[in-house]
Amino acid sequence: MKLRLSLLLIAFCLSTAYADVVSFKAPEVNGKIRVSKNLILTDWQAVMSCHFDVKGVRKESIRYPQTILKKTATDEYSLFVKKGSLSEMLPGWRLLTCAYKIILIGKNTELERSIMGELYLLGQESGEMDSNDLKDIQNKEFVAKVIADKTREISLTISSEGGIESN
After folding, report:
1. Model-level pTM?
2. According to the lineage, what is the superkingdom (predicted)?
3. Which of 21, 62, 101, 120 has the most C-beta neighbours closer than 10 Å?
């Protein structure tokens, strides 16, 4: 019995020796969003995601921190996002990218059409990030500073392609 337990413990330790360990933590966010006069926001969600290479296949780990937007004036919203954490230790998985973004859905009041946009606050979801950038995104203080700076006051408009973009 002790031998079996010892072998299982050794196998577990060896399997995790080849794992990328990810600890991506985002702070609570309090910010402000200003919108152009022809834009109304109707839905929103913060997203934390990391992408991995697993034997040549791209895999994703994702978290959705609670996101609250309140209209405070005709062209202004207050933004609140609860703390988020994405921690993984995945044997044989190689970390490629991590990102923190806000997905926004709204309405173009001039054309009476629904529109959407993604506002990347940190990182990327495509390709592969530099190892130094991946280290930065796992540094809680760095993440807190970047997100606080970028959400202090966000200005949104409708792009020429018809989606939501920040200026």
Report:
1. 0.83
2. Bacteria
3. 101
